[in-house]
Amino acid sequence: MTNEINSSNFIRNIVIEDLENKKHDGIITRFPPEPNGYLHIGHAKSIVLNFGLANEFKGKANLRFDDTNPTKEDTEYVESIKDDVKWLGYKWDELFFASNYFDVMYEKAILLINKGLAYVCDLTPEEMKEYRGTLTTPGKESPYRNRSIEENLDLLHKMKKGEFKDGEKVLRAKINMASANINMRDPIIYRISHASHHNTGDSWCIYPMYDFAHPLEDAIENITHSVCTLEFEDHRPLYEWFVRECEMNSTPRQIEFARLNITNTVMSKRKLKELVDNNIVDGWDDPRMPTIAGLRRKGYTPESIRNFCLAIGVSKASSTVDSQMLDFFIREDLQPKAPSAMAVMKPLKLVITNYPEGQSEMLPIENNAKDESQGLREVSFSRELYIEREDFMEVPVKKYFRLFPGNEVRLKGAYFVKCNEIIKDENGEVTEIHCTYDIETKSGSGFTGRKVKGTIHWVDANNCKPAEFRLFEPLILDDAPENEGKHFLEQINPNSLEVLNGFIEITAVKNASFGDKYQLFRHGFFNVDNKYTTEDKLSFNRIVSLKSSFKL
Ligand code: ATP
Ligand code: MG
Question: Does CATH number 3.40.30.10 belong to domain 349-359+378-461?
Answer without folding.
Answer: no
